[in-house]
Amino acid sequence: MSTDYLILGARLLGEEPADLVLRDGVIASLGADTAHPRDGVELVTVDADGLLALPGLVDLHTHLREPGREDTETVLTGSRAAAAGGFTAVHAMANTTPVADTAGVVEQVHRLGIDAGYVDVRPVGAVSVGLEGTRLAELGAMASSAAGVRVFSDDGHCVDDPVLMRRALEYVKSFDGVIAQHAQEPRLTVGAQMHEGVVSAELGLAGWPAVAEESIIARDVLLAEHVGSRLHVCHLSTAGSVDIVRWAKARGIDVTAEVTPHHLLLTDEQARSYDPRYKVNPPLRTAEDVEAVRAGLADGTIDVVATDHAPHADEDKDCEWPAGAFGMTGLETALPVIQATMVETGRLTWADVARVLSTTPARIGRVSGQGRPVAVGEPANLTLIDPAARRRVEPAAQVTRSRNTPFAGTELPGRVVATFLRGRATVYDGAPVAHEEVNA
Ligand SMILES: NC(=O)N[C@@H](CC(=O)O)C(=O)O
Ligand SMILES: [Zn+2]
Ligand SMILES: [Zn+2]
Fold first, then answer.
1. The organism sits in which domain of life (predicted)?
2. Among 96, 146, 298, 407, which lies 20 to 30 A Cα-Cα from 347?
3. Cα 18 vs. chain centroid, distance in angstroms?
């Protein structure tokens, strides 16, 4: 039996509370309660008093680890964690085993996403064969495959060869693609363990200088301008990077940039714990950098927040810092961290949050039917959150298969109460709906 939802009294962005009816995959009405039972259709009423309705969140940067490291995350577990975090679409990065550098692999990931049914999984295609940075992958075949890839990235690695980067930027123009660059000049970061600065010097850990990121971003915006193509900067983390992107945009270059929740909250001071849960690429930077990325997100220089959800096995984090893997989980804490760092500080409104976590990432990834406003006739992709809730992060209670959250024990605001993908609940009463029900 199919289900209609009548959501009573949800707060909409900048508007009075209203009742919403979700029916046949779309928002059928908005305003006073107009739902009436239909034959053969269950009508479920949701009391949304005090809840805020946001368009379903869209992540431009998620690591789902399938194929290859299903012990840490699968398309099913990762997309369920995404729904729990309020997402209705994620982009699955290409650094799997095998690498998503062929039409076959991206179609497989796409198919697994459909079978999971929690969010729209948009596979990212690798830029180079095997992420090796030497030969261009079959970008056109991935674009025209059933997966319809539009975002290409060697994430985890930088496309450091400027000739290859230029060719990739030129090539994706023909199918409206974008190159998402992991900006890290490899020769400036050999053996790097954390941000290069006062703390790394004190701890005796090899440093990752800000210029290793900034020099690649500067080069790439100029390459994008030269060939008239579209560039996206992954997980931008330094004040200098914000300045370069601001300059490029003022010059009219077609560049967009993302920042992660962890770079908006944490600093390199966290490394003093020697706990590898704070080890991430790019590294946590200084308080001045945190202030600069917050300001850049507030003034629109940084277009989106992307999680860079990077699940890792316990054995790769319960170890000495130098042996630890780079990466942190983020799908279930993204919205709470943004509420804490940007909304409760008065730097973003909830409408801005919808823009940076839904509308703009959907536009950059060319994800149709996502990132749309909560309005009549639109696909019913939305999340209901309780902004007044406060919760302590418990790694074992999270939906993701991995426990490497840097926010363990931290109290954060906000809670996802329900998420809907095309009118079907993927999360209800704060918990993911059973798999049999979402993909029934
Ligand atoms: N962010 C990370 O520290 N790690 C990512 C790779 C990446 O995003 O560069 C991963 O795949 O684990
Ligand atoms: Zn990266
Ligand atoms: Zn990544």
1. Bacteria
2. 407
3. 29
Burial (CB count within 10 angstroms: exposed 0-12, middle 13-18, buried 19+), residue 14: exposed
Task: Using the atom order of ligand 1, give the atom closest to the CA of residue 234.
Answer: 8
pLDDT tens digits for 80-131? 999 999 999 999 999 999 999 999 999 999 999 999 999 999 999 999 999 9
CATH number (domain holding residue 9): 2.30.40.10
Check whether residue 39 and residue 81 sit in a common domain: no
Where does ligand 1 bind, in terms of residues with CB under 6 Å? 63, 95, 155-156, 182, 280-281, 308, 310, 326-327
| 261 assigned to some structural domain | yes
Span 333-342, average pLDDT: 98
Q: What percent of the chain has pLDDT over 90?
A: 96
Distance in Å from the first CA to the final CA of the chain: 10
Is the same domain home to 344 and 272? yes
Point out the ligand nearest to the CA of residue 281. 1
Does residue 27 lie within any of the structural domains?
Answer: yes
Q: Are residues 182 and 165 in the same domain?
A: yes
Q: Is 71 a known active-site residue?
A: no
pLDDT digits (tens, 9 = 90+) for 128-144: 999 999 999 999 999 99
Q: Which domain holds residue 79?
A: 55-364
Q: Is 265 annotated as a binding residue?
A: no
Shared domain check, 100 and 36: no
Q: Are residues 26 and 82 in the same domain?
A: no
- Name the domain count of the chain: 2
Classify burial at 252, counting beta carbons within 10 Å of its beta carbon; exposed 0-12, middle 13-18, buried 19 or more: exposed
Angle, helices 210-227 vs 162-172, to 10°: value is 50
Residues 256 and 109 in one domain: yes
Instruction: Name the E strands within 212-303.
Output: 231-233, 255-259
Q: How far apart are CA 136 and CA 411, in angstroms?
A: 45
Which of 155, 208, 402 gets mutated to test ligand 1 (max ligand atoms within 8 A of its CB)? 155
Ligand 1 atom closest to residue 310's alpha carbon, by position in its atom list = 12
Place of tokens 């992420």: 131
Number of other CB atoms surrounding residue 345 within 10 Å: 11
The residue whose two tokens read 């064969």 is: 129
pLDDT digits (tens, 9 = 90+) for 157-167: 999 999 999 99
Asked if residue 248 and residue 218 are part of one domain, the reply reads: yes
Q: Which ligand has the minimum distance to the alpha carbon of residue 156?
A: 1
Joined together, the tokens standing for residue 165 give 């980067």
Residues 12 and 131 in one domain: no
Residue 394 placed within a domain: no
**What token pair was written down for 14?**
């900048």
> pLDDT value at position 2?
87
User: Any idea which residue has 């020099």 for tokens?
Assistant: 215
